[in-house]
Amino acid sequence: MPSTILVGAQWGDEGKGKIIDVLTEDMDCVVRSQGGNNAGHTILLGSEKYVLHLMPSGILRKGVTCVIGNGVVLDAPGLVKELRGLADRGVKVGKNFWLSDCAHLVLPHHRGFDALRESKSNPIGTTRRGIGPTYADKASRNGIRAGALKDPKALAARIRARLAEANEIFKYHKQPLVDVDACVKEHLACAKILAPFVTNTAVLLAKIMAAGKSVLFEGAQGTYLDIDHGTYPYVTSSNTTAGGACTGSGVPPTAISRTIGVMKAYTTRVGEGPFITEDKVIGDLLHGMGREFGATTGRERRCGWFDSVLTRYAQLVNGFATVAITNMDGLDTLDKIRVCTAYKLDGKKLDYPPTDLENFARCEPVYKSLPGWKFDTSGVRSFKKLPVRAQDYLKAIADLTQAKIEIVSVGPKREETFFC
Ligand code: GDP
Ligand code: IMO
Ligand code: MG
Q: Domain check: are 297 and 160 in the same one?
């Protein structure tokens, strides 16, 4: 059975949660393999809105096993809160959920370091969820893994040791210290709830795949927030691109049968960093419709025209053959729609973004203007029923991306979607 990676082709918030929810109708298992509760994946079921931060977006489908893999950084109190929120709304989480013993725990000092870093010059505009410092501790082999949730004594001792070191640093910077006893108490309470879910998820996934089940890897963030391939340093601290699905879950690349890219019909970004096609016209339009506010921090998302230089490179890095295009209804009212086909830098035309941030920031967009379709697409349920101009727009952005259109989304709800 197929194993599919779903990856964001822009700067995150492409509508991955919604597409995952649609695709899980035919899936047995959904896996998160990187990021943490910096993610905010929105699913609309009727009038019920769910925003998932750590829990895979398959959790709303009965019979789907959800897995948080080793590459995720886990805010244990955050996950417990999410579990309670789901239970309050009648979503049962039991034997359909597993958590890797190798996922690293996000602790209060990580959030403190995140905030401290953001208060200095050149902030990244992080979600302040402690994501970067947790991955830094992991890389410097100072982290605490979720396996410790099964051993309360070891968990308490490790938290105390790590927080003692961290508090020395906070003291030096004249910052408030972390309350060690409160943190230990909170994590011991979380451990009681989470320990039954903790396991070796690489073995679990191997068994699921060997049984012929279909697995969907749910990307968090997007290609340009990737620590290696994104607009460094204005990125997150994990590999958000397709390769991260394997390293972050213990599933070999040979087990992956396909990758789907998700992209909005325009571009958005939250946080700092250059954004070549950013434009107030489209920002004002979308914000005026009450759209494009962050699902995690509530910040207004920056908006711009579709940038095919970004999506083309995303195709190259992730290897997706097909794309899911979301939010096309956001463009319904426009007379003319701009699409960035290439960049210009020092008189030269570029098909791919420069990897150096200063050069990237100096690029100018080369635009093609396409006529708008001026039609409410939210009720359309097939490609053929779209106005010809809307079809042409979708074909143009897919061609420029060098991928085929697989899914089109014309609204936030499950049913506001069609396959091509
Ligand atoms: P994710 O992080 O990639 O899962 O995306 P977010 O949930 O952060 O942001 C996507 C936003 O767009 C959410 O508010 C979704 O409900 C919404 N959305 C997704 N697809 C569509 C669509 O086709 N049309 C409209 N109007 N909204 C959409
Ligand atoms: P989903 O999964 C959009 C951005 C932050 C900031 C940068 C670094 O919902 O698409 P971090 O807290 O990760 O250290 O912040 O990354 N960012 C996201 N932007 N969608 C996300 O996730 C994001 N997760 C992080 O705004 O610019
Ligand atoms: Mg989001």
A: no
Which conformational region is residue 69 in: left (phi greater than 0), alpha (psi within -120 to 50 degrees), or beta?
beta
Q: How far apart are CA 279 and CA 334, in angstroms?
A: 14
Taking residues 218-231, report their average pLDDT: 98
Q: How many domains does the chain have?
A: 3
Give the number of whichever ligand sits closest to the CA of residue 265. Answer: 1
Residue 342: beta bridge partners? 366
How far apart, in whole angstroms, are the C-alpha atoms of residue 321 and residue 306?
19
Interatomic CA distance for residues 371 and 36, integer angstroms: 40
Phi, psi angles (nearest 5°) of residue 8: -75, 135
pLDDT mean over 292-320: 95
Report how far ligand 1's centroid is from the alpha carbon of 44 (Å).
9
Among 38, 44, 327, which is best to mutate for testing ligand 1, by the most ligand atoms less than 8 A from CB? Answer: 327
pLDDT tens figures, 51-69: 999 999 999 999 999 999 9
Other beta carbons within 10 angstroms of residue 194's beta carbon come to 21
Q: For position 281, which CATH number holds? A: 3.90.170.10
pTM beyond 0.70: yes
* Distance set, CA 58 to CA 10, 93, 218 (Å): 22, 11, 9
For ligand 1, the distance from its centroid to the CA atom of residue 40, given in whole angstroms, is: 10
- Domain match, 185 and 90 both: no
Contact criterion met (CB below 8 Å) for 36 and 11: no
Are both 308 and 382 inside the same structural domain?
yes
